[in-house]
Amino acid sequence: MIEPGDALPAGMLEGSEGQFALADRKGPLVLYFYPKDDTAGCTREAQDFSALLPDFVALGVELLGVSKDSAAKHRKFSEKYELTVPLASDDGTVMAAFGVWIEKQLYGRRYMGIDRSTFLFGADGRLFRAWRKVRVPGHAEAVLAAAKEMLGT
């Protein structure tokens, strides 16, 4: 499991432009992992990050949402809700590196799923702050405040 001060893990993701290496991302970065496109909590989270995207961009902080959904499903999701936050697909490799692919339980049934989590990395590629078991209301604003703190603005 990644902890503050750790380097950005390596791994490949698929975005709207095709596959890319996570390690190729430059500058401050917010990675948020979410369970599934087009569900209530995930939609609200993507809308909240989309609404604040100009504020993150003004700080020079890149945003990226990650789930196991396909790039095609991400496109439909983004179009349906007019999302501006970039979304990427993972086969589970990056999620495992971050410790967000976990066993869950619902109505007594156990299954593997994504623990809604967010990670803020500095320009040096080191983890500044992590949020696990995220509750969506107010979360995007808290991440923006932490980014401002990290950058001293």
TrEMBL record:
Name the PROSITE patterns for this protein: THIOREDOXIN_2
Q: Which InterPro entries match?
A: AhpC/TSA, Peroxiredoxin_BCP/PrxQ, Thioredoxin-like_sf, Thioredoxin_domain
- Give the Gene Ontology MF terms in alphabetical order: thioredoxin peroxidase activity
Coiled-coil spans are none
Per the record, its GO cellular-component terms are: cytoplasm
Q: What does this protein do?
A: Thiol-specific peroxidase that catalyzes the reduction of hydrogen peroxide and organic hydroperoxides to water and alcohols, respectively. Plays a role in cell protection against oxidative stress by detoxifying peroxides and as sensor of hydrogen peroxide-mediated signaling events.
Q: How does it assemble?
A: Monomer.
Identification of the protein by name: thioredoxin-dependent peroxiredoxin
